[in-house]
TrEMBL record:
Coiled coil: none annotated. InterPro entries: Acyl_CoA_acyltransferase, GNAT_dom. This is Aminoglycoside N(6')-acetyltransferase type 1. Residues 3-178 form the N-acetyltransferase domain. Keywords: Acyltransferase, Antibiotic resistance, Transferase. One of its GO terms (biological process) is response to antibiotic.
Length: 182
């Protein structure tokens, strides 16, 4: 299973819109799926106007998912929310992710994609001491994929859910740079 990625471009927006409409994605991402909404929300990162990286993930050369990666210090309000639950080291990164094709879920693709994202983070961001990932406590497939990818649960706390049907309980997962301090 070979995972690769590249930054999203405007030509990827129709595919993102289709993925965001998939029930297994829509349940957790709760995102508007019109062409205008996708362009509005993903356009700034695609054009380099947003500090986050929106990355189209490929499995054996075929688009399979999305990884969003960012430095927490680029988002001070979000950083403050997480820091109210657990200590957040300077330079910490975070990721979010989705598998677009429902036929690829439950096949280890999410775990492989997370592992690839973590490995690339160490290479692309040499100052990052760790990656912290909050996930809705009710999203068992997501937090199980994090665990299978080697992240460990380091906290539980209340964060604003992506989908208003969920309560605020989130698990926080962490993986440290190999050879770094905890």
């Amino acid at each position: 299973m070979e995972i690769t990625w590249r930054r999203i471009v405007a030509q990827d927006f129709p595919l993102l819109g289709i993925w965001l409409q998939q029930p297994h994605v829509k349940r957790w991402w709760n995102h508007e799926t019109t062409a205008e909404a996708v362009a509005r929300d993903f356009g700034p990162a695609a054009r380099g106007e947003e500090p986050s990286e929106d990355l189209l993930a490929f499995l054996d050369g075929r688009p399979v998912g999305l990884v969003q990666r960012s430095r927490l210090h680029d988002y001070p309000d979000y950083l403050a929310e997480l820091a109210a639950i657990i200590p957040v080291p300077d330079g910490a990164m975070t990721i979010d992710y989705l598998i677009g094709d429902p036929l690829q879920t439950g096949q280890g693709v999410g775990t492989a994609m997370i592992q690839f994202a973590i490995a690339r983070t160490w290479a692309d961001h040499p100052a990052a001491p760790c990656v912290l990932v909050p996930v809705a406590a009710a999203n068992r497939p997501s937090w199980r994929a994090l665990e299978r990818a080697g992240l460990r649960r380091v906290g539980v706390g209340d964060l604003e859910p992506d989908n208003p049907v969920d309560d605020r309980t989130h698990y926080l997962y962490r993986v440290d740079r190999p050879g770094g301090s905890v």
